[in-house]
Amino acid sequence: MARKAVRLSDIAEKLGVSTVTVSNALANQRGVSEELREKIKEMASEMGYHAPGTQIMAKTAVNIGVLVQERYLGNGSSFYWRLYQELAIACAAHNCLLAFCVLKPDEEKNTVLPVMVSDHRIDGLIVMGEISRAYLRMLEKEAGMPMIFLDFFAAEFDVDCVISNNFYGMYTATRHLIKKGHKKIAYVGSVKSSNSIADRYFGYLKAMRQYGLEEREEWIIEDRTSGTMEIIEPKLPKDMPTAFVCNCDQTASVLIHELEGNGYRVPEDVSVVGYDNFVFMPVCDVAITTYGVDMPEMAKAAAERIISRVKGLDKGPGRLSIISGNLIDGESVRALI
Q: Could you read off the pLDDT of 181-191 as tens digits, one per residue?
């Protein structure tokens, strides 16, 4: 029977210290006295501890794990599948191998450590897409390796984060409608579902307030279920705006389908703008005007940050990298002036 791998928490329990202290000592990070550092290293050696990635494929430069919650993947293509593809390309350029792990809802709820982490198969971990803070705290305590948060920001963690420019992107999309003469503009997105959707909402508010336009509660429209994040048909308001800005292109596509089903033409009667420049399951034939996310650049930034951390080239505090995109004209916006 194979011997169970020694974890950082095992060493911490033996010495009566925290897992973070053990991790810092073994990585020669600041904040640990030399005396305690030596005790930790001696105990690690006695217990047969092996740093992540040293037992498996030792000659490989870096082995990176990618963790994504199941709800983000859907039944087919999705934004995160595309982002993972870009990440694979970016990591291959640095002679890295990726291990992909899907986090099940019950595993997230019960804070189950991914096998690729507990078995020391990887050197670093990229968490792609926002997950619960309880699970992230468990990873911070138990993983014992560098981490990157991709496509979400968590200020309470000292971790590198790479995100798209959600605030400015949605500000740009909303301003585009305003410049086209629209004054009655609704926002479609479940604001409490994620920080990214909330940041985009605040970008919408910034543009509306800058131009002195009316904000209505009925024009803030839910677009997905809580928990599963499944996109639903937005409920059209009684007092219709002349335009909608949507937190993602998939929502924009579903909205256009709903508008057409209710007798509205896009863009002749109503204009629609999206975000992402990616629709994984199109349900309309209209080319959507959108703020395009630069996925290759996001993937490149994430790959460079995690490799730098794994190789010990950067031991400073976590950094936030904000990647800008650009407005892409489609056929879903009509000028009123």
A: 999 999 999 99
Architecture of the domain delimited by 166-293 = 3-Layer(aba) Sandwich (3.40)
Torsion over CA: 94, 97, 102, 106 (sign): negative
pTM summary value: 0.79
Domain boundaries, the chain: 8-47, 62-164+295-323, 166-293
CB 309 within 8 A of CB 301: no
Q: Do the domains spanning 62-164+295-323 and 166-293 agree at the CATH topology level? A: yes
Q: In what order do the strands lie in the sheet with 220-221?
A: 220-221, 185-188, 243-246, 271-276, 289-292, 326-328
CATH 3.30.1280 fits domain 8-47: no
Q: What pLDDT score was predicted for residue 43? A: 86
User: Would you state the pLDDT for residue 51?
Assistant: 66
113 φ/ψ sector (left φ>0, alpha ψ -120 to 50, else beta): beta
Hey, what are 124's tokens? 């670093």
3-state secondary structure 187-243: EECCCCCCHHHHHHHHHHHHHHHHCCCCCCHHHEECCECCCCCCECCCCCCCCCCCE
Q: How is residue 1 annotated by DSSP?
A: -
Q: What is the pLDDT of residues 80-127, one digit of tens each?
A: 989 999 999 999 888 898 999 999 999 999 999 999 999 889 999 999
CATH 3.40.50.2300 is right for the domain spanning 62-164+295-323: yes
Q: What is the pLDDT averaged over residues 199-227?
A: 95
